[in-house]
Amino acid sequence: MQRIRVHTRLSLLVPISSLTAVLAFSQFTAAQIGAASQKTGAPAAQSSSAAFDPRDFSGVWNPAPLLQPKGEVNPLDLGGNPNPLPPFSAVGMTKYQANKKFIDAGDVLDCDPYGTARNFFTPRPFENIKAGNRLLQHFEYYDNWREIWTDGRKFPDDLEPDYMGYSVGSWDGSTFVVESKGYNGKQFLTWQGFPLSPQMHQTERWQRIDHDTLKIVFTFDDPTMYSKPWTITYFYKLKDWALDAHPCTISALKQYDDKVSHKDNLPGRDYQPQN
Amino acid sequence: MRHRIAGAVALALGLLVVCAPLRAHHGGSDYDTTNLKTLKGTVTEFNWSNPHCQILMDVKQDDGKVVNWSVETLAPAVLKRAGWSPQSMQPGDQVTVTVAPSKRGTPVGTLRKAVLASGKELTGGYIGEQEQPNP
Questions:
Q1: Are strands B94-101 and B37-47 parallel, antiparallel or unpaired?
Q2: How many CB atoms lie within 10 A of CB B3?
Q3: Cα–Cα distance between B64 and B48 in angstroms, integer?
Q4: B91 part of contact set with chain A, CB < 8 Å
Q5: Under a CB-based contact definition with an 8 Å cutoff, are residues A218 and A115 in contact?
Q6: Residue A226 bridge partners (DSSP)
Q7: CA distances, A157 to each of A153, A181, B80 (Å)
């Protein structure tokens, strides 16, 4: 998907080159705004047998990838040939193969938000913060924010596609059901480059199964990229941490590129996306 | 005329940005985690920065030649939870680090363990609840 994004930029930015510097500056400015977000502390983690409110998901949660049931699609299997693969459509398989080729060439960082799924499957913590009629999620790795509306609203008719989508939450007993749509399809669903399209309808069923364990079952329904809905079950552990989120900045990426990637002749550095 | 010049400048600026090299990022598969390497040397830079901190250090090879290695770590937030701070290394410090070296044979590696100038040992930190590949 990043491959497509870069290509799109190439085709769009040249004709509107006078806007390019403005766009780059806007991206940088947005990152700085994220840096100014106030960090909050998390409740102290206790033993798993401690009492808890099953409807309270606030606090800092750290992914526990090895608790994922065996046999499911592993969203963090970076070993070249993930097994099993999700049920790709023909379009989805083509996209995945293109994305994989791109990642194998060195991946690319460009500060674009990670989207919700990729943030959830990144092995870095996130914080849930109750905020009136919303639950806010703050993802540490890229300093991304998500708001889940809990006031009973439906999806707007005029959803504006975005990296983080639009999310609404409701209760099914003590299970928090989050549905999200409105993704722009310009991000990977997982680290391996599994794709998503603007048709993605993502459903999450959150259950706090003990004091310090959150279980989320993700269902991905995207008829463009997948032949049928498919699921991932992931677990998160409550931590006594404050997030230490840093925004992605162009200057930090340049430094990394100069000090590490360039020195390692990483092929991704000079990789040019193909049509 | 002025509009033409302004348009040309804007076009040039735009092309400069479009043609900028892509920012590459290492994945775990870029490093040889089965043949760890121990480096003893002098810190020349310690950059406490996302996406990954960088330790640059001069290492004297067996043939006497000094090579400047780049050792990347996990993100600052991860290092902090493992006991590091931006002051953990200073230029001039004599340190020993264990790295998984790049498969490309370049003087680049990813940190596994460090023995600081003070003798204090620190790991490279963990991501997720268990050690995972380095995304």
A1: antiparallel
A2: 7
A3: 30
A4: no
A5: no
A6: A88
A7: 12, 11, 44
Question: What φ, ψ does residue A178 adopt, rounded to 5°?
Answer: -110, 125
Mutation target to probe the B interface, by most B beta carbons within 10 A, among A103, A104, A257, A261 is A261
Note whether B72 and A269 are within 8 A (CB).
Answer: no
Q: Which of B80, B75, B60, B63 is nearest to B122 (CA)?
A: B80
State residue A232 phi and psi, 5-degree precision: -135, 135
- Number of residues assigned to chain B: 135
Tokens describing residue B30: 């870029």
- A144-149 and A166-172: which strand pairing? parallel
Chain B residues with CB-CB distance to A122 below 8 A: 135
Provide the 3-class DSSP secondary structure of residue A117.
Answer: helix
Rounded Cα–Cα distance for residues A206 and A172 (Å): 10
Per-residue model confidence as pLDDT tens digits over A77-92: 766 677 899 999 999 9
What is the per-residue pLDDT across A10-39, written as a single tens digit (0 to 9) for each?
Answer: 222 222 222 222 222 222 222 222 222 223
Please tell me the distance from the alpha carbon of residue A215 to that of residue A233, in angstroms, as a whole number: 7
C-alpha A206/C-alpha A214 separation (Å) is 7
Is the pTM value of this prediction over 0.80? Answer: no
User: How would DSSP label each residue in A203-219?
Assistant: EEEEEEEETTEEEEEEE
- List all residues of chain B from 9 to 38 with a beta carbon under 8 Å from chain A: 10-11, 13-15, 17-18, 21-30
* b/e map B109-134, b = 16+ CB within 10 Å: bbbbebbbeeeeebebbebbbeebbb
d(CA B40, CA A95): 45
